[in-house]
Amino acid sequence: MENKNRRTFIKNSLGLTTGLLMTQVLTGSAVPSILGGADKFRFAKAALPYGYADLEPAIDAQTMQIHYERHYNNYVVAANEAIEAEKVDVKQAQDLLRNISKYSGKLRNNAGGAYNHELFWSVLRPVRTDNKPGGSLAKAIDTAFGSFDKFKEEFTKTALSQFGAGWAWLVADQGKLKIGGTPNQDNPLMDISAFKGVPLLGLDVWEHAYYLHYQNKRVEYVNSWWSLVNWDRVQQYFDKSDKG
C-alpha cells in the first residue's frame, strides 16, 4: 500500500510539474521547457499530461498516438534542424514567431507546428459534461461575445469554415478577446499573420487530428472537442496574456 501511494504521489507531482512548465512555455512567464538553455533556443518535445486513451471517446487513442509521436515529433525535429541551419539567435519561441518572416518556409511551418501543438496538448483534458469556463475568463467571454453559447457558436463556425488545413483560435489582443483562424501551421503570434493576438485556446482542424475516427465529419470532431477543453488552463493563459 505504501509503494502504491508513493507511485500515485510521484505521478501527480509529475503531472503538476508538466502543467506548470506548459503554462510557462506559452505565456513567457519563466524559462520554458522549449528552451535549450538561457542562450540557445531549441524546441523540446512536450510531455502529454494524459494518456493516449484518456481523451476517448472524443479523440481516440490511435489518433492521439499518431498525432503526437509522428506529426508533432516531426515538427519539433524539423524546426530544430532549420533553427540550426539558419543560425537563429533568439531566446524564446515568441521572439522567433514574431519575426518569422525573416526565416525560411521550412522554419515557419515547423516552428508553427511545434508551438501550436504544444498549446493544443495543454488545453485538453479528459471528457467533462457541461464543460464551461468560470471566473474572469467567463466574464470576458460574455463581454466579448454576449454569452458562452454565442462564443461557442462563433468559434465552431470559424473551425468549420477554415478551408483545408489550419487552426481556430481564441486570443487576447490588448485586453480584448477575439476569434479567428489561420492556415496551415501559422498562428496569431506570427508577424505574417493577418489575425494577431496572444493564443489562449487553439483547435487543430488538420485532417490528421480527427480523420481516423470522424473521416470527413469535421463538425462531429469539433462538437466533441468542446467536452475536452481545459478551461482552468485557458484561464491561466488569459490571466498572463497581458505579459504575452
Describe this entry's structure for a reader:
- This protein has 244 residues and is mostly helical.
- It folds into two domains: 59-121, Orthogonal Bundle (Helix Hairpins); 133-240, Iron/manganese superoxide dismutase, C-terminal domain (minor pseudopilin epsh fold, 3-Layer(bab) Sandwich), CATH 3.55.40.20.
- The chain is 49% helix and 9% strand.
- A three-stranded antiparallel sheet has the order 2-1-3.
- The longest helix is centred in the first third of the chain and has 26 residues, at 2-27.
- It is globular.
- Mean pLDDT is 87; it is low at 1-38.
Order of helices and strands: HHHHHHEEEHHH
Portion of residues in helices? 40-55%
Strands of the biggest beta sheet: in what spatial order? 2-1-3
User: What about the largest sheet?
Assistant: 3 strands, antiparallel
What overall form do the CA principal axes indicate? Answer: globular
Per DSSP, the total helix count is 9
Structural class: mainly alpha
CATH topology of the largest domain: minor pseudopilin epsh fold
Determine Rg (CA atoms, Å). Answer: 18 Å
CATH architecture of the largest domain: 3-Layer(bab) Sandwich
> What is the average of the pLDDT values?
87
What is the CATH domain class of the largest domain? Alpha Beta
Q: What is the percentage of strand-forming residues?
A: 5-15%
Function: Destroys radicals which are normally produced within the cells and which are toxic to biological systems.
Pfam families: Sod_Fe_C (PF02777), Sod_Fe_N (PF00081)
Catalytic activity: 2 superoxide + 2 H(+) = H2O2 + O2
Domain Manganese/iron superoxide dismutase C-terminal: 134-236
